[in-house]
Specification:
By secondary structure, this protein is α+β, with helices and mostly antiparallel strands. The chain has helices spanning about 5-10, 10-70, 125-140, 165-180, 185-190, 205-215, 220-230, 230-245, 275-290, and strands at about 80-85, 90, 105-110, 115-120, 145-150, 260, 265, 290-295. The protein has a 6-stranded mixed beta sheet, with helices on both faces. Strands 3-8 form a two-stranded antiparallel ribbon. The chain is elongated. It starts with a helix and ends in a 7-residue tail after the last strand.
């Protein structure tokens, strides 16, 4: 039997072929591993993107839902309540979910004063205007020579008064939605009980509801609405609208209360002078004349 190297094991050529085959298998296995890693990485990235998109979608949906689910009261389509008599409000649907207020359209007939007031129930100047002018505005309403649109807003909230401006305005939105014909009387009653701005802590919800009850409004629906502050966000939105509206900005710039317009003209007289306001009303009616329909607010510079 032969005893040379070729006879005792694989030849040199065989060993080279075996090495090449081993190297080939190792390359194929490395390629397969690299491909698997790539697939895993790509899948992870896709899953991550999907997760991020899902989170973004939830945030957007939540934000949209939150804005579209704001409770809006009935009878305040313009953002305020319109009265044609002291005990007769114009009924309207609520502002649609996610929509903006619809400004009131009035007819300028040369006889009717269309009065608009933006007020804050904590505002002492609003109280002065109300105390001074409510009797003659009531008379004008009841004799048919005026309409009155009241826009409650909240610019004087503080921790000290326990956000009284918003709470009282939201309570009046509850009233507007359920018993709007009582709005004028309770508007006056709230001002009659106005807490002191500098030292007062604001009326409690229970005290507000007592004023309502004393003026003939006592229902579970309104009580729940006031205590839950159902229309808090509505008041916040209307306040933001007023502050941002350049038409409502005062002569010195910026929005303040009370802001009063008659037939589109801003009243800039004294808040404690009933004769001055009456003269302004008469002049505003005469200036507007019989000029057809106009959408309010469309303020013009006061003469």
């Amino acid at each position: 039997m032969a005893t040379g190297k070729g006879a005792s094991g694989p030849s040199k050529r065989d060993r080279r072929e075996e090495a090449r085959e081993t190297a080939r298998r190792m390359r194929e296995e490395a390629a397969k591993k690299a491909k698997r890693r790539k697939v895993i990485v790509q899948s992870s990235v896709i899953v991550g993107i999907v997760a991020v998109l899902a989170i973004v979608g939830v945030v957007i949906f939540t934000s949209v839902s939150a804005s579209s689910n704001v409770a809006n009261p009935k009878n305040m389509l313009s953002g305020g309540l319109l009265l044609t008599k002291s005990d007769q409000a114009v009924t309207t649907p609520a502002i649609a979910s996610g929509a903006q207020p619809t400004p009131t359209k009035q007819t300028l007939d040369g006889k009717t004063a269309h009065i608009q007031i933006w007020l804050d129930y904590q505002c002492p100047y609003c109280n002065e205007f109300e105390t001074t002018n409510a009797p003659q505005i009531k008379q004008m309403l009841d004799e048919g020579s005026a309409t009155l649109e009241i826009h409650p807003v909240a610019i004087l909230d503080s921790a000290k008064n326990n956000q009284y401006s918003t709470r009282s305005a939201a309570a009046m939105a509850c009233l507007a939605s359920e018993q709007p014909d009582k709005f004028f009387d309770i508007n006056s009653a709230l001002f009659a009980k106005q807490p002191d701005e500098s030292t007062g802590t604001g009326l409690t919800n229970a005290e507000i509801l007592t004023i309502f009850k004393d003026n003939g409004v006592d229902s579970k629906t309104i009580t729940d609405c006031v205590n839950k502050q159902t229309y808090e966000k509505f008041i916040t939105n209307r306040t933001n609208d007023a502050v941002a509206d350049k038409q409502l900005a005062g002569p010195q710039g910026g929005f303040g209360t009370p802001t009063v317009f008659v037939n589109g003209e801003r009243y800039q007289g004294g808040f404690t002078n009933a004769e001055q306001f009456a003269a302004f009303v008469a002049a505003a009616v005469k200036d507007a004349g019989s000029s057809g329909s106009v959408t309010f607010p469309t303020p013009t510079p006061s003469k």
